[in-house]
């Protein structure tokens, strides 16, 4: 027994297994994940596999000190990685992934705020390393002799063979798969497509390797879809029917030889065509200004004395009290992308940037372009983070204005952003220049003044800092509220400018926040908001309103998010569009399903909050879902996420539009020939009669 206990390989193996698994357990406890689950057992087996391989390699060293140093490096690296993931998720809203490596630039630029956001308990992940150092001190005279290589090789092979078999069984065995889980363990292993659920099921170290594998060798999982197109010929046509001719699309599907594209075709064409309703066309031929408010949350709504212009707007708005802008990688751009396309962004990818060459014929710009609108877009910053000139052009924006083209002052120092009031004044001048006669305009504006940081002095943060004197609010919140005041001023300037030009009554303003101000701790936000931001993704709640002076202010209770913006406004403006092209829905449709889907596939509505990472559900009412009902909701949610991802990765709508256009051109040519032939026949017949 003594000989076994003195075995160098065994000591290394036991120390690494204990240390790495303890780090995983600490991570789960701090991250509020369940500890006593099948996932934890899988993670333990995974740690044994990793420790077995590392122990074999470390044991190859001849010197005892080198072995101890290498073990220390492994344990410390594990502690740093788990701590980093906790902090990254808290700061950005998603776990760090190689597919979202561009987000590291944002962490780099806000490094002080990033580390300031770390809660003290995150550093508890170093406990195993501290214990290791204490052990070295106590047993400093103990040497780690080199075990015989052939014996350690045999031991390693045996450990790996047994554990890999158990590991595979834990992934494939139906009994170890939670039937409510949004994505199967097999799919997570192959794709690591959802970092939150992958980490819950495979741990941080497992995710590290699976993420690397997926990055180097990306694989797409096949989804089972209906093989046949639904026959709609027998559907009853009413005054509210939105009749769409699928003749050409069906031809495309029949001739499609690309299985991935055919799968998307079949899924989309079988989706519901929502009917027209009482709100259809109420804004027909009006102008529209879409505003994406940088880091704007419900503080603007809950403090009307500080933000009178926002309060004034809500008096004539449909205001959605349960609107959310779930954070994702590159939260601003991804949530801008989702608003413009009504597609979900890819969870671990800076989607619009990565696929910036994609073309979106059915984007919010293009459906207004097709209606004869003058379109343009603007953002009061540079392209330091995102290639908006390319993205907006491919979205269909008639022209894109960055901060230089707008001709307003700005600073490259991230502490001093451009001022949104100057931004909106410039936009009004663009409207004067671009819109003449009876033309209508549509524009998309993304603000910047309320961007972080909030933890240090800045021009915008100090401009109205005294506004909150005597409130006792934390200093970072007060700087944030100062920046929101600039946004409110900008809204006031916009309203006045439109009224001076005599077009306010003929203009609709649509506003939603891109994400909550994640540079501020949730504890501090809780000191100024009426709800707890730590509960059930409440932090993701942001304002969303649809304004026009003709509207009598209404507070709407439906749960909604940015993907519903496009189809809702397309219906209200009476535009020609196909509802099946979007994962969002018209909020005024009688069939609207009130729900918010978050980045990890969690969802929330009036009845419950489902946590996809933990497979938990929390109820708000006496009504409860059955397991089958939860599974059905999860199935629909995951299908929308999957097909949004496939659409983006395959540049699907560009391909579909080209094929549909080609078929229509051929059809028009044939029709023209047929009409010509008919005219010739009539001419000949008439001549014959004359003769």
Structural key phrases:
alpha/beta, 9% strand, Alkaline Phosphatase, subunit A, 691 residues, four-stranded antiparallel sheet, 26 helices, 12 strands
Report the structural category: alpha/beta
The CATH class of the largest domain, by name, is: Alpha Beta
The CATH homologous superfamily of the largest domain is named Alkaline Phosphatase, subunit A
N- to C-terminal separation? 121 Å
The CATH topology of the largest domain comes to Alkaline Phosphatase, subunit A
Report strand order across the widest sheet: 4-3-5-1-6-7-2-8
What is the CATH architecture term of the largest domain? 3-Layer(aba) Sandwich
Low-confidence residue ranges: 1-5
Count of the domains? 3
The residue-averaged pLDDT reads 89
Strand percent estimate: 5-15%
Number of strands: 12
**CA-based shape:** globular
What is the number of helices?
26
Work out the radius of gyration: 29 Å
The main β sheet shows up as:
8 strands, mixed
Task: Tell me roughly what share of residues is in helical segments.
Answer: 40-55%
Structure description:
The protein has an eight-stranded mixed beta sheet with strand order 4-3-5-1-6-7-2-8. 49% of the residues lie in helices and 9% in strands. The chain has three domains: 2-176, no CATH class; 229-235 and 243-269 and 651-691; 278-599, Alkaline Phosphatase, subunit A (3-Layer(aba) Sandwich), CATH 3.40.720.10. The chain contains 26 helices and twelve strands. Mean pLDDT is 89; it is low at 1-5. By secondary structure, the protein is of the alpha/beta class.
């Amino acid at each position: 027994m003594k000989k076994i206990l003195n075995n160098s390989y065994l000591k290394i193996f036991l120390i690494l297994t204990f240390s790495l698994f303890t780090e995983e357990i600490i991570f789960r406890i701090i991250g509020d994940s369940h500890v006593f689950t099948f996932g934890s057992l899988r993670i333990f087996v995974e740690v044994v596999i990793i420790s077995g391989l590392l122990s074999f390699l470390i044991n190859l060293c001849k010197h005892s000190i080198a072995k101890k140093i290498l073990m220390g490096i492994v344990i410390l690296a594990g502690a740093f990685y788990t701590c980093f993931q906790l902090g990254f998720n808290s700061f950005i809203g998603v776990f760090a992934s190689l597919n979202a490596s561009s987000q590291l630039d944002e962490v780099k630029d806000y490094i002080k705020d990033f580390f300031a956001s770390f809660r003290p308990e995150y550093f508890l992940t170093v406990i195993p390393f501290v214990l290791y150092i204490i052990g070295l001190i106590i047993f400093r005279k103990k040497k780690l002799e080199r075990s015989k290589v052939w014996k350690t090789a045999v031991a390693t092979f045996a450990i790996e063979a047994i554990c890999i078999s158990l590991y595979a069984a834990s992934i494939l065995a139906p009994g170890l798969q939670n039937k409510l889980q949004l994505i199967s363990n097999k799919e997570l292993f192959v794709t690591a497509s959802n970092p939150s659920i992958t980490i819950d099921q495979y741990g941080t170290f497992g995710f590290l390797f699976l993420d690397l594998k997926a990055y180097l060798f990306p694989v797409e999982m096949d989804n089972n879809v209906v093989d046949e197109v639904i026959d709609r010929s027998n559907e009853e046509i009413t005054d509210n029917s939105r009749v769409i001719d699928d003749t050409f699309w069906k031809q495309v599907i029949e001739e499609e030889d690309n299985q991935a594209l055919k799968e998307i075709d079949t899924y989309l064409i079988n989706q519901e065509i929502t009917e027209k309703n009482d709100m259809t066309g109420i804004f027909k031929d009006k102008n529209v200004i879409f505003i994406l408010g940088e880091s704007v949350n419900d503080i603007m709504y809950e403090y009307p004395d500080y933000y009178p212009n926002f309060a004034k707007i809500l008096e004539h708005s449909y205001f959605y009290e349960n609107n959310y802008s779930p954070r994702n990688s590159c939260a601003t751009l991804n949530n801008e992308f989702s608003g413009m396309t009504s597609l979900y962004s890819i969870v671990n990818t800076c989607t619009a940037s990565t696929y910036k060459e994609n073309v979106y014929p059915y984007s919010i710009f293009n459906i207004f372009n097709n209606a004869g609108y003058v379109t343009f877009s603007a953002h009061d910053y540079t392209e330091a983070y995102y290639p908006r000139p390319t993205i907006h052009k491919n979205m269909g924006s008639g022209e894109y204005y960055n901060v230089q083209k707008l001709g307003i002052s700005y600073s490259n120092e991230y502490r001093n952003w451009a001022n949104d009031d100057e931004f909106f004044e410039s936009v009004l001048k663009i409207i004067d220049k671009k819109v003449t006669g009876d033309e209508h305009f549509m524009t998309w504006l993304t603000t910047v003044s309320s961007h972080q940081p909030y933890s240090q002095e800045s021009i915008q943060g100090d401009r109205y800092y005294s506004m909150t004197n005597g409130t006792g609010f934390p200093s970072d919140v007060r700087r944030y509220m100062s920046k929101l005041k600039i946004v409110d001023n900008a809204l006031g300037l916009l309203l006045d400018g439109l009224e001076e030009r005599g077009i306010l009554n003929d203009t609709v303003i649509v506003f939603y926040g891109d994400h909550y101000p994640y540079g501020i701790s949730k504890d501090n936000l809780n000191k100024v908001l009426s709800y707890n931001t730590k509960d059930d993704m409440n932090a993701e709640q942001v304002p969303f309103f649809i304004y026009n002076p003709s509207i009598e202010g209404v507070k709407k209770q439906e749960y909604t998010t940015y993907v519903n913006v496009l189809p809702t406004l397309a219906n209200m403006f009476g535009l020609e569009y196909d509802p099946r092209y979007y994962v969002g829905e018209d909020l005024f449709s009688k069939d609207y399903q009130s729900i918010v889907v978050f980045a990890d596939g969690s969802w929330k509505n009036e009845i419950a909050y489902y946590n996809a990472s933990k497979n938990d559900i929390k109820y708000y009412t006496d009504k409860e879902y059955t397991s089958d009902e939860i599974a059905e909701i999860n199935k629909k949610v995951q299908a929308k996420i999957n097909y949004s991802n496939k659409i983006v990765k395959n540049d699907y709508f560009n391909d579909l539009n080209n094929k549909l256009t080609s078929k229509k051109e051929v059809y028009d040519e044939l029709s023209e020939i047929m009409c010509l032939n008919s005219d010739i026949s009539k001419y000949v017949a008439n001549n014959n009669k004359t003769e």
